[in-house]
Amino acid sequence: MKMMNNASGDDLTLNRLFSYLQEELVTPIESIHPIRKNVYLLQKGNQFVVLKGFSHLRKLQIQKAFTSSLRQEGFKNSYIFQNLEKESPLYLDGTYYGCLEHIPLSSSSPFSYESEKERKDGLRLLEEFHQTTGKLSRRYQTVLKEYNLMLKWRERAARFINNLSIIKFFVQQEILNEVMEWADFSLKGLELEYSFLNNHDQVILHGDLAHHNFIRGIDSELYIIDFDLVSIGSPACDYLQYCNRILPSLDWSLQDLTEYEQIRPFLNNRGFLYALLFPTDIFREWNRLIKDRQYSSTFQVRQVLDLTVRQFFNRQSFVEQVKLLLEN
Questions:
Q1: I want to staple 38 with a disulfide (CB 3.0 to 4.6 A). Which of 53, 199, 269, 296 is the partner?
Q2: What is the arithmetic mean of pLDDT over 162-174?
Q3: Tell me: the pLDDT tens digits for 217-268?
Q4: Where is the Aminoglycoside phosphotransferase domain positioned along the sequence (predicted)?
């Protein structure tokens, strides 16, 4: 038995999981390596497979079905699940496990929004993903939740407000006041223009377009992974998140944002413009930091302060430019 450990799990956990897998998998494994929480790389001879844990069997079953549907519709730039267990689903210590196809990674740098080429490649792949999931949305309407942008953002803003007693020790009040004003302006505008989300056919949204959910394969192809947050909704919701992810790399330049062909048409829509102003990233990261009690970590705090403070003046200029468009 060979185990490679890191912060994702201790030796006891790995020992128990390794022993369990040896009993339940058709082909014995040679090594297990933690990637992150509840995700492991397994080696079988010269082959590898990814083991991923799920809190509920239904979540595992949905993702198995969805990734299979994607592949059947011709979308090849992701993984599918593999049936390697002997009989019943893998289950240990309250977690269900599924075996994913392993995508060998390129030896070059990981996918990054800092690269213009990769920003454009990511958008093209997201567009292809939506074209495919648009064919699947009716099939999954009774399986997946409908994405509710307003509800999600109102809840995120409320948690941020509840956390202000801690955040104010790190960020000056003037900046916090303006960030809250952006959120208020955005939500009030969205109340008036929310119908813009009905202007497009429904698709299955990815819902988590963090850079680590795009990977470059050894074949130089770009792949999209991790479907924990898939839901039904307008493709505009994924594009809004993509904009929010790439704008820091564009120094919050509205002009640079117009250079992306998949995004450009949305910039003529008032609802989309109002939504662009919502500081969802600032709220998300502060809420997560405080929930995980990481505010004593200099490294973690510095990253969130970068979003909130270092980028503030560029973002302030961006907000002013978008407001001018909304006035016209």
A1: 53
A2: 97
A3: 999 999 999 999 999 999 999 999 999 999 999 999 999 999 999 999 999 9
A4: 39-248
| Residue pLDDT, tens place only, 31-42 | 999 999 999 999
111 domain residue, yes or no: no
Secondary structure of residue 44 in the 3-state scheme: strand
Closest CA to 133 of 201, 200, 204: 204
Q: Which of 33, 35, 40 is nearest to 95 (CA)?
A: 40
Q: Which domain holds residue 199?
A: 116-327
Question: How far apart (Å, rounded) are the C-alpha atoms in residues 3 and 26?
Answer: 19
CA torsion angle 237 238 239 242 (round to 10): 130
Instruction: Enter the tokens of residue 31.
Output: 């090594």
Do the domain assignments include residue 109? no
Between CA 28 and CA 7 the distance in angstroms is 25
0.85 exceeded by the pTM? yes
Which of 37, 72, 101 terminates a domain? The answer is 101
Which has the closest alpha carbon to 1: 47, 21, 10? 21
Return the CA Rg of the chain.
21
CATH of the domain at 193: 3.90.1200.10
Cα 214 to Cα 24, 164, 194, 285: the distances in Å are 31, 33, 29, 20
Where is the domain boundary, 69, 101, 133?
101
Is 303 within the bounds of a domain?
yes
Neighbours of 245 (CB within 10 A): 16
